[in-house]
Design a protein that fits this description.
51% helix; ten-stranded mixed β-sheet; two-stranded antiparallel sheet
Length: 1029
């Protein structure tokens, strides 16, 4: 008998599959990996009754293909395979070279989604299966993963041993108010939690993960650590409650003698209502025994260690044990309700009236009073219990709503389980509390409620042991949930690598955080040593309320910003409701204890500051940055393109880092450039834009430009300049700066000052391209209506903290809108120049005009609220020295001026020879590659240069001599009057029309010669200062 041939798979285009075919196919898994360095991809699939893949595309095993395969290996089947290969194998060929589109877009058809692992990890793509389509094995559902843990935490010690006592103190009305306030805060928090949870995939960490991704890592870590403390300390609360109940039920287990309190008047004034008749209450003194605090401490430590051993066994062991703990708790509640319905009986204590309207009315109003340390009413007691104090005592009874989100990494579907399970637990437990308040208020007189703190066991049916066992197991189950959630929360915070001090607590998601569990054990034991439930309760209440406030603020911020990524599946939310919930949580904190509120908020603020200082948080895409983005967009829209009023003018400098190519290639910019940039801000307010131009083609230099931007940004951060880095790729520096001047900035936040270093050594290094670039930068800045500041002596610029003394001299020659005056004030506001005195030098034509000019300028500075001395220098001041006077000083000045003039003329003649287009001219030396078009443009311009020894084609040689004379004269005045100046500011003259760039460079060299530290400032066509208020 011939052997059956293996089934054949026909390659069928996906677009040709019918709906019936699609119903019978199933995509199992798709994995995508890079196959070559060029980015080509190969797709591999594991098939089971479904899709497959070939060498070039996807195919499916459809009924049509199977029928063809079973028909034999004939020509028809071969044609079908050929047809399938021709049409179906190349459908995705267009996208094969794009790894991002293929991974995120194409593979989405296979049920995968893109999920980055962590903000601090690599940007490599990972394709996961959708949680809705492929349930994870071993994960927990809504009932066991959320509802039962929440009920175990909520239905804890407060319900069994404190609720009846609270009804006795606050009355039915006051107790209902306490439940209404507390449950309202948790219900609103659950709504906010549901909205944030359903907005995307959620990792481990519970509320920390939500708050951190909404309010930023600093706020997330600070509130997350506080919530960790609340969970760890909350375990001690439940453990102390279990020990108190156990020792009350079995006093023979006590290791230390109990505390006794004798009541003389507690029952004297009471009247009991039995079967509708009033009977006299006992008047004898009564002795109340309380559990020793040392017993609470000893047994509490033992139970804490045993519970932590269970936690070490893993989350599944905790779930098994927790499920066993919840059954006795439910039976205990049922036993209490049956006992209330059947009371009173022959063995009922005095004051147990059974359900009675008269008793309910008598217990309706509150009776706030003082008690002793054991909660027994005592007129001389040291503890007063009012509404605020009872609010703090009861609140831990509703703080279990985060039990499900704390184990988010163990849930099968967080977006479905957390909202449903949490809200169901809150609604059911709120109904239980409200019903119990009415039942407790109607079953016994007030004195019985306030003296029997274990009334639930007293009235239980059939025996008190049912409730006592239920209390112990229920509270231990709640403690187990806290001790299981707290270490995972700490491990989640550590896994984000925000705080290096927490790195020891890191743990993989599939492993147990043993070290974090041990730390939780130590923290819980430290609070167990307090030995009193009433003392521990207000402390954990503050931590939980702070966490709930953070969840509500997260939802309010995300809803208010309404970013495109905010698309929660949970629709029942509004930012006003969430904001009201946050305010309610803060109000409850203040009502409970303003002191503990301040302590808790202070702790959160200190953690926030610590994280901000030493933390290594990345960009989490949090709502705070989204809010900044919205605020920036609205501010830009509000500012528009209108000019800023002089009162609101801020310098936004565009700092050109390497315009001349004089720095080493690996240097992002001059080391002192950052110090200079900080001097242009007032008290740190402002922003600088550091720009660098790479010469070449963008397609070839895109990656180096990105790397250069990162290096430049690192330099900015190291200098604390509060600026941004921009790296542009252009064919030349001039073209790149021109692009930056036109396009950089938005609306009213465009740079308004162009700053760059003066090329002092250009002539020595024979870099003939620098003059052309220098003139182009000044002219382009003027064309773009931007001021210009050129720094000379940047090597000598003082470092941050290096205090300068002397004067800041301003040679105010032309009207510049007041920018030179404003810069001097900004410089003086820095600690480096705050000890310097400002002097304003003005140029007058003669002595008669000097006095009037001095008075006018002094009055103007007074109106501008600027402190400065005014010095007027006449034009004859220099001529008196170098022309008419005799003596060694005048002779030295005349000799220096003539040498400077001669040297300038020689330099100009030398540049004419270099730039001349003669056959004997040397090649132009440049710092980088020069295009043929650029060289040709330079040579075409050289035909208009002045010839040596005579007049040029377009420039009058006498005018060149006049400009040289002016700059030399002004330089002599600066060196004469500003010998002791820490810094000199002088008006920058515009480049003369038709003068070659090297002539203008020579003018500037004569102007700055011999001045160690100088700023040349050129304003633009608007005022930046005003005399009006």
């Amino acid at each position: 008998m011939p052997q059956a041939s293996p089934p054949m798979y026909a390659r069928v285009p996906l677009t040709e599959l019918s709906s019936a075919d699609l119903d019978t196919t199933e995509l199992i898994s798709v994995d995508l990996e890079s196959s070559t360095s060029q980015g080509s991809l190969s797709a591999t699939s594991t098939l089971s009754e479904g899709y497959g893949t070939g060498a070039h595309g996807m195919y499916a095993r459809s009924p049509r293909g199977v029928a063809a395969a079973e028909g034999g290996r004939g020509e028809r089947h071969g044609e079908e395979r050929h047809e399938g290969r021709r049409h179906g194998d190349h459908h995705l060929e267009l996208f094969e070279s794009d790894r991002l589109v293929d991974a995120v877009g194409v593979k989405r058809m296979g049920g995968g989604y893109y999920s980055p692992k962590s903000p601090h990890e690599s940007d490599s793509l990972q394709v996961h299966r959708d949680q809705d389509t492929v349930p994870s094995p071993g994960k927990l559902g809504t009932l066991t993963g959320v509802y039962i843990p929440c009920v175990q935490n909520i239905l804890g010690i407060i319900f069994y041993i404190r609720l009846s006592w609270i009804v006795g103190i606050a009355g039915v009305s006051g107790s209902l108010m306490v439940v209404a306030v507390t449950c309202a805060s948790t219900f609103i928090t659950a709504l906010s939690l549901s909205a944030v949870v359903t907005n995307g995939a959620m990792k481990g960490g519970g509320p920390y993960y939500l708050i951190g991704r909404a309010l930023g890592p600093e706020v997330g870590v600070s509130i997350g650590l506080c919530f960790f403390f609340g969970n760890a300390i909350g375990g001690s609360l439940y453990i102390l409650g279990a020990v108190e109940t156990l020792l009350d039920a079995m006093p023979q287990m006590a290791l230390f003698p109990p505390t006794s309190v004798t009541l003389q008047t507690a029952l004297n004034a009471s009247e009991a209502v039995i079967n509708g008749t009033i009977a006299a209450a006992p008047t004898a003194a009564a002795t109340v025994l309380s559990v020793s605090r040392h017993d609470m401490q000893a047994y509490g430590i033992i139970i804490t260690v045993l519970l932590c051993l269970i936690v070490f066994g893993g989350v599944h062991l905790v779930d098994r044990v927790g499920s066993l703990f919840i059954i006795p708790a439910v039976l205990a509640v049922i036993s209490v309700f049956i006992g209330i319905a059947l009371s009173p009986d022959a063995e009922s204590p005095a004051g147990l009236t059974g359900l009675s309207i008269s008793t309910l009315v008598s217990n309706w109003l509150p009776d706030y009073q003082t008690t002793n340390a054991n909660g027994i009413p005592d007129p001389n007691g040291s503890f007063y219990w009012g509404f605020n104090q009872l609010l703090g005592l009861f609140y831990p009874g509703v703080t279990g709503i985060m039990a499900g989100s704390n184990r988010s990494e163990a849930l099968r579907d967080t977006q479905r389980s957390i909202p449903k399970g949490t809200l169901a637990a809150i609604v059911s437990m709120t109904g239980l509390y409200v019903g119990s308040i009415f039942l407790f208020g109607a079953v016994g007189v007030r004195d019985l409620l306030v003296t029997d703190r274990l009334l639930t066991a007293t009235i239980a049916w059939p025996v008190p042991a049912v409730v006592q066992v239920g209390i112990v197991l229920s509270t231990l189950g709640a403690a187990l949930q806290n001790l299981m959630g707290a270490p995972r929360l700490l491990a989640a915070i550590a896994n984000d690598s925000v705080l290096p001090v927490l790195n020891a607590f890191k743990a993989d998601s599939d492993k147990e955080p043993h070290l974090a569990t041990f730390f939780t054990l130590v923290l819980c034991c430290s609070f167990v040593l307090i030995g009193d439930v009433d003392y521990v309760s207000p402390v954990i209440t503050m931590f939980f309320l702070l966490c709930y406030c953070g969840v509500n603020l997260s939802c309010a911020l995300l809803d208010l910003v309404d970013a495109p990524s905010w698309r929660p599946r949970w629709r029942w939310h509004h930012w006003l409701v969430s904001l009201a919930g946050a305010l309610l949580c803060l109000t409850i904190m203040y009502l409970i204890s303003w002191f503990f509120t301040v302590v808790c908020l202070t702790l959160a603020v200190l953690i926030y500051i610590y994280v901000s200082m030493v933390g290594k948080a990345g960009d989490w895409g949090d709502g705070v940055k989204s809010a900044y983005m919205q605020l920036a967009l609205r501010s830009l829209h509000f500012l528009g393109v209108s000019q800023v009023h002089p009162k609101n003018w801020y310098p936004i400098p565009l700092i050109l880092c390497k315009p001349w190519g004089l720095l080493p290639p690996d240097a992002p910019c001059h080391p002192r450039l950052g110090d200079f940039a900080k001097c242009m801000r007032k008290k740190g307010r402002g922003m600088s834009i550091f720009a660098t131009v790479l010469e070449g083609e963008y397609s070839a230099l895109a990656s180096p430009a990105h790397q250069a931007s990162r290096v430049l940004l690192a330099y900015i951060d190291s200098r604390q300049c509060e600026g941004v880095a921009e790296v542009m790729v252009a064919s030349s520096v001039k073209r790149g700066v021109g692009i930056a001047l036109q396009s950089m900035g938005l609306a009213g936040l465009k740079p308004n000052i162009v700053c760059f270093r003066y090329p002092e050594s250009w002539l020595q290094q024979e870099m003939s391209h620098i003059p052309d670039t220098f003139v182009s930068l000044i002219n382009d800045s003027n064309t773009a209506s931007k001021a210009c500041v050129i720094v000379k002596g940047l090597d000598e610029w003082p470092a941050e903290g290096c205090k300068q003394y002397g004067t800041i001299d301003l040679y105010w020659i032309v009207r510049d809108g007041g920018i030179m005056l404003l810069l001097s004030q900004l410089l003086r506001s820095r600690p480096t120049f705050e000890a310097c005195k400002i002097q304003v030098f003005c140029i007058a034509e003669d002595d008669i005009a000097a006095e009037t000019l001095q008075l006018d300028v002094a009055q103007f500075l007074h109106d501008l609220r600027m402190q400065a001395d005014v010095v007027v220098v006449t034009m004859r001041a220099w001529e008196d020295v170098v022309g008419d006077e005799d003596g060694p000083e005048a002779e030295l000045a005349r000799q220096g001026a003539m040498e400077a003039f001669t040297r300038a003329r020689k330099n100009i003649a030398r540049m004419i020879d270099i730039e001349s287009p003669s056959p004997h001219s040397t090649a132009v030396t440049t710092n980088g590659p020069e295009t043929s078009g650029r060289i040709e443009k330079q040579r075409s311009a050289k035909q208009e240069l002045p010839a040596r020894g005579g007049n040029g084609k377009g420039v009058d040689e006498g005018q060149v001599n006049k400009f040289l004379y002016t700059t030399i004269k002004l330089n002599s005045i600066i060196k004469r009057y500003s010998k002791m100046a820490a810094l000199v500011l002088v008006s920058l003259p515009p480049p003369p029309i038709h003068h070659p760039p090297y002539c203008y460079m020579e003018y500037m060299d004569r102007l700055v010669d011999g001045v160690p530290r100088l700023l040349m400032v050129r304003g633009y066509r608007r005022d930046v200062v005003t005399i009006f208020t």
